[in-house]
Automatic annotation (TrEMBL):
Residues 149-214 form the HTH luxR-type domain. GO terms for molecular function: DNA binding. Residues 3-119 form the Response regulatory domain. This is DNA-binding response regulator. It holds the Pfam family GerE.
Length: 218
């Protein structure tokens, strides 16, 4: 079972999300928080697989809570779940270490798939968010970013580029291992090397480079 911490200041929203996740048969909400500070405290106490956080919450906003959870509870993956998809939120969330960004207006299956993906160590962006990241980017013109991404990817070995493309497609380490007929430990080493050589903090940022370099179709 995937153990989830759910944080949202609206009880009805938490109930709806809890019901959707419960319907999958593979996810258990082990703790619920009504504000960001409580979310951080519960993450430290329960060590869930995934912390699913709203952005606008009292006491401590979800973005700050996400950064604190990433820093102090390293075994917990963080995904944002919000109605707000403005660029500033997306940029800060991904820059702060979140590996998922989901919209409350999305399909329930998208929510389940997103939680499953980040729990497995992969990255997951709502299609609308992914479109924004690809079209608007995290700074600079699109053609410039594409050229820069291709230059960065050119420094990778053929196998590293292959792994990067699969990371960009949202595959987890076990899925990449199965696709490339490698052991999972080898894939983990490749992913770490790719992140290091690209100079990015996490798989989401690596996926953005993969998209911009043309290694995976948007």
């Amino acid at each position: 079972m995937i153990r989830v911490l759910l944080a949202d200041d609206e009880a009805m929203v938490r109930a709806g999300v809890r019901a959707i996740l419960g319907s999958s048969g593979e996810t258990e909400v082990v703790a619920e928080a009504g504000d960001g500070r409580e979310a951080v405290e519960l993450a430290r106490a329960h060590r869930p697989d995934v912390a699913l956080l709203d952005i606008r919450m009292p006491r401590l906003d979800g973005l700050t809570a996400a950064e604190e959870i990433v820093r102090t509870v390293p075994g917990t993956a963080v995904a944002m779940l919000t109605t707000f998809s403005e660029g500033a939120y997306v940029t800060r969330a991904l820059g702060g270490g979140a590996t998922g960004f989901l919209l409350k207006s999305g399909d329930p299956y998208e929510l389940i798939a997103g939680v499953r993906a980040v729990a497995a160590g992969a990255a997951f962006l709502s299609p609308k968010v992914a479109r924004y990241v690809i079209d608007e980017g995290l700074g600079g013109g699109r053609l410039t970013r594409e050229a820069q991404a291709r230059a960065r990817v050119a420094a990778l070995s053929p196998r590293e580029r292959e792994v990067l493309g699969l990371v960009g497609a949202g595959l987890s380490n076990p899925e990449i291992a199965a696709r490339l007929h490698l052991v999972e430990g080898t894939v983990k080493a490749y992913v770490s090397a790719v992140l290091d050589r690209l100079g990015v903090r996490n798989r989401v940022q690596a996926a953005i480079v993969a998209y911009e370099a043309g290694l995976v179709e948007p």
